[in-house]
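Mods, move this if it's the wrong board.
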Amino acid sequence: MASVDEIVDLLKQKSNPTHLAGMKRYGIDSSKALGIPLPELRKIAKGIKKDHELALTLWKTSLHEARILASLVDIPVKVTTEQFDAWTADFYSWDLCDQVCGNLFDRTPFAIEKAIAYSAREEEFVKRAGFVLMAEYAVHQKKANDEIFINFLQIIEREACDGRNFVKKAINWALRQIGKRNGALRIHAIESANRILAKECKAAKWIASDALNELTRKPSGTIN
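Not the wrong board. Structure tokens:
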């Protein structure tokens, strides 16, 4: 099994200055990054056996790609609530937030409670994490009860006036993913979006109108 030092050396070998420059164009904080495309990181992860302790050590390196790799090699059932909170507190970039939530956190036993808790937090990336968890839970947890997502929709309505870019985009994402989950939730999501649209704030109107544009669109091939 590869050591952390060996993995970090491999990551440094894969460093791509062109990709690093591209990260900045997408609003990604690259101050701790090497510039490695995500497909390459996933390829590296496939060659590493799942290992909780290794994931914890990779996270401690503070390297951007090592932390994404940590989310790919960690074991969801071994994640503690303390680790969940500590890693989330370390989020400084939207892509790190999204990768950790979508690769790991949404598969843990704490996903729902943390989504609810983080949605009320003030820190931008912690709050984003709350809504990314909702979106990713809607995608990955196929057997989850609709009531979970109806509860999420109430929170989405409550927080829809947060105009910070990385927060409002995550709120919109959660709303759309819940609405795409099934027919019943689509109806609930459209109703929520219409209530959000009526709010007197710019962020809410963008969140709602963008979601409604997708959720009310007729499937391709539909004949009028």
